[in-house]
Amino acid sequence: MFKIWMWERLFSDFGVFLRGFAVTVGVSVCALALTLVISLVVGLFRCSGNRALSAFSRGYMSFFQNTPLVVQIFFFYNVLPRLNVILSPFAVGCFGLSLYTGAFGAAVVEAAVNAVPHGQLEAATSQGFGFLRTMFHIVLPQAMKVALPPMTNQAVNLIKNSSVLAMIAGGELMYRADSWASDSAVYGPTFVVTGLLYLSLCLPLSMAARKLEKKTRHP
Amino acid sequence: MMSFFEPYSLSEVLLFLFKGLGVTMMIALLSILFSFLFGTILGVARYSSKGILGKLAAVYIDCVRNIPLLLFILSFRLMFPSYVFGYKIPYKPVVSAILAMTVFTSAMVAEIIRGGLNSIPKGQWEAATSQGFTFAGTMVHIILPQALKKILVPMMGQFVTCIKDTSFCQVVGISELMLNATIVMGKFRYASQVIVLYSLVALIYYLVNISVLHLSKKIKF
Q1: Residue A52's pLDDT band (boundaries 50, 70, 90)?
Q2: Nearest CB to A174 within list B63, B68, B167
Q3: In a domain, B4, yes or no
Q4: Distances B67 to A90, A194, B36, B110 between C-alpha atoms, Å
Q5: B71 neighbourhood in chain A, CB within 8 Å
Q6: pLDDT of A1
Q7: Whole-model pTM?
Q8: Domain tally for chain B?
Q9: Would you say residue B1 lies in a domain?
């Protein structure tokens, strides 16, 4: 199974893997940026005290957390073209991944904002700060410290979940690895190398998250 | 009168989807069960051993947690032998998928178990040791029962993740809920049919998962 010619063949075609790796990184970065925006908006909706906004974001979080990412991605991928909205798999991946991860990120933001002592909010309000200014100048900078480790874990999940794009021919690492493997019949080495490439992306992030977590727990 | 899901009747579609749901639930249940057994061993090893066993468990957990599940499912499907000791393995795709999901989920479960073990005060260990309990006796009779109570909710959360993750199994051609929906979709002509079908599938997953989460809040022991 692990013969020398397989590895030779793999490394002579290593450009395929690198291109896939680049797409994975690209999708992940774009989706992560969108995820941050979604989590912040939805998380702040939850904390705003406005009933309608709060209910909306609770519904959003509950729905997107409890349905599989595959269903969501397939929905966008199969429904939008029939409505004459043509999106590339890359864009579908970005939107799908960020909507899904945003639901988890919003919960992180909400918990972090609630972890900031309530007195901070009252003090800011007593000084005439509005809700948004209180949040952005007083509460969120303090909440950042709490939110950073779980947010990093969500980023790891997002990178892992980007492999779902393989199901819609997204051209990312998983897709290229899988199709290259079935073209060349080199399975073992392909999966090992693909796993290592994912590991090289995710492991440093998980390690960083763990270090940050320790730091916030014992300052 | 034609039905809304045109080439099919409504009952046909529903029956097909629920058949898929059965497969989904079976895969999810079996993999969470095996993951719980294997994950407990891993978690206890990582928690209690400073030596080679703990290191091995840590490496396993860190590696598996940072690799996508899809890679495990695909590689297990292709690398899994068809024959073991001369016996043909029945339902090979399903068996390999359950195995892949077990390998992946047990790493998550191990972390949950370790979190539960860490939350038990050190005094419990000292008290048990002073009463003459051995290490294994303390673990099995004193520490684990307390830890298991605390991890019930995160374990149910992991079960929900497991149910969601079974939708990856369609890449190896297991006809679970998601693949059945895609098969049904193949003959649809209108966007509205696809939208309703996928909403239905999402709703089924949602209701199942919400009920599991609700159940985890009800259980007391």
Answers
A1: very high
A2: B68
A3: no
A4: 21, 9, 20, 16
A5: 163, 174, 191, 194-195, 198
A6: 60
A7: 0.90
A8: 1
A9: no
Range of the domain at B160: 10-218
CATH of the domain at B186: 1.10.3720.10
Chain B residue with minimal CA distance to A196?
A: B67
Q: Does B205 contact A66 at a Cβ distance shorter than 8 Å?
A: yes
B2 belongs to a structural domain = no
* Alpha carbon of A122: minimum distance to chain B alpha carbons (Å): 33
Give the integer Cα–Cα distance in Å for B121 and B137. Answer: 17
Q: List phi, psi (to 5°) of B88.
A: -75, 135
How far CA B202 is from CA of A72, A103, B143, B198, B208, in Å, comes to 8, 15, 40, 6, 10
**Tens digits of residue pLDDT in B53-98:** 999 999 999 999 999 999 999 988 887 777 777 777 777 889 999 9
Domain assignment of residue B3, yes or no: no
A96: domain CATH number is 1.10.3720.10
Note which residues in 1-40 of chain A have CB less than 8 A from chain B: 1
Judge whether A208 is closer than 8 Å to chain B, CB to CB: no
pLDDT value at position B2?
66
Domain of A92 in residue numbering reads as 4-217
What is the C-alpha separation between A63 and B210, in angstroms, rounded? 9
| Count of the separate structural domains present in chain A | 1
Residue B153 at interface with chain A, using a CB cutoff of 8 Å = no
